[in-house]
Amino acid sequence: MRSLRPLIWAAALAAAFFFYTTYRHGGSSPLNPSNWLTSSGKLELTEASPSAASLDSEEQTNIAVYKKVSPSVVNVTSTAVSFNFFYGLVPQKGQGTGFVIDKEGHILTNYHVVEGARQVEVTLHDKKKYKAEIIGTDQAHDLAVVKITAPNLTPAVLGDSRNLSVGQFVYAIGNPFGLNGTMTRGIVSSIRSVESPEGAFIDDAIQTDAAINPGNSGGPLLNSHGEVVGINAMITTNGAGQSAGVGFAIPINTAKAVLGDLVSLGRVRRPALGINGIPIGPELASELGLPADNGVLIMQVTPGGAAERAGLHGGNERAYLGNTAILLGGDLIVAIDGLEIQDLQDIAHVMNNHRTGDTVTVSVFRGKQKKDFKITLGEARQQA
């Protein structure tokens, strides 16, 4: 009996240790009677009530814009050919975005999306693919129109970019990195003139912080009504070719002014006054004794051009501005349609919002007398 006592004590100590560590500190055991009563073997989840899943007004707007416009947005794939020293002619593919502008199948995109393309293919939102024909290009504004033949197309609604305000919401829909049908949202960050990497000047470009990445080019920038207010064209990158929160879109009004020519002629007839002039600032105006501090002094009018037909005068007195020969005595343009003109860029800005054949009112000083002339714009031939 004495020989069993150590074993009995060892078993008792082991049992005490087991009960102390398991039940005293909250351990569980299949032998615990409480487990027999509460464990059902089912996972209990806390779920939201149906009312908690309702959408707020901003979310509803986001969804409404996407549903309205996404059927109009397409993927544009262009195939160009480049020469490789070792392999000869090698096809290269580029990708961008576009959007349908009419039921005839015309699609607006960027010029740089289809530049040099031998073949263009368009993929609609329903994944159907169509070969496209390049109808017209406008390198100066980075715009292009291609056309497909497809049934039941949904044209996008073209809005008005004149009254955009910094701070208002805008939405970009496109195919960044080939991810079709992607929408991002941001605000209008600024309205400013910029130069694209290809050298195109974009007057009144819409700057936005909506994420725009490679593949978004040519896609629509939209207001909260789902109306196109711009064509996404370029980004300022972080060095890796990705969005750094600074993207730019071409104003839709710039595109609307040239769409007729692009579709009917395949090119754009640039409107022009038909003058050759120099910008005048306060210092030069004082030296020349001009009646206004700013404007564009007409040196020559193009023979048979719009300005000459309307009766504007060029200069007749030769002088030198540094080493540059100029002509003095011509009319001084100070406004067009009531908009102040300070330099040739201001005239170009006005021309970008007009078409050949439009009539504008040009205000000039002839000597000390101010006059207004109605001018029907001609087609540009490397002059203002």
**How many beta-strand elements?**
23
What are the low-pLDDT stretches, counting only 5+ consecutive residues below 50? 85-90
Task: Tell me the distance between the termini.
Answer: 122 Å
* Lateral arrangement of strands in the main beta sheet: 1-2-3-6-5-4
Discrete helix count? 8
CATH class of one domain: Mainly Beta
Average pLDDT for all residues: 86
Give the % helix. Answer: 10-25%
The description of the largest β-sheet is: 6 strands, antiparallel, barrel
Strand content: 35-45%
Structure description:
With 384 residues, the protein is of the alpha+beta class. Among the domains are: 90 residues, Trypsin-like serine proteases (Thrombin, subunit H, Beta Barrel), CATH 2.40.10; 109 residues, Roll (Pdz3 Domain), CATH 2.30.42. It is 20% helix and 40% strand. The chain is built from eight helices and 23 strands. The strands form five sheets. Strands 1-2-3-6-5-4 form a six-stranded antiparallel beta barrel. The chain has a six-stranded antiparallel barrel with strand order 8-9-10-13-12-11. Strands 15, 16, 19, 20, 21 and 22 form a six-stranded antiparallel beta sheet that branches. The longest helix is centred in the N-terminal third of the chain and has 19 residues. The radius of gyration is 34 Å and the shape is elongated.
Strand and helix map with partners:
Elements: H1 5-23, H2 33-38, H3 57-69, E1 73-84, E2 88-100, E3 106-109, H4 111-114, E4 119-123, E5 129-138, E6 143-147, E7 157-158, E8 169-174, E9 182-195, E10 201-208, E11 220-222, E12 227-237, E13 243-251, H5 252-265, E14 271-272, E15 275-280, H6 282-288, E16 295-301, H7 306-310, E17 317-321, E18 324-328, E19 332-336, E20 339-340, H8 344-352, E21 359-366, E22 369-376, E23 378-379
Parallel strand pairs: 7-12
Antiparallel strand pairs: 1-2, 1-4, 2-3, 3-6, 4-5, 5-6, 8-9, 8-11, 9-10, 10-13, 11-12, 12-13, 14-23, 15-16, 16-19, 17-18, 19-20, 19-21, 21-22
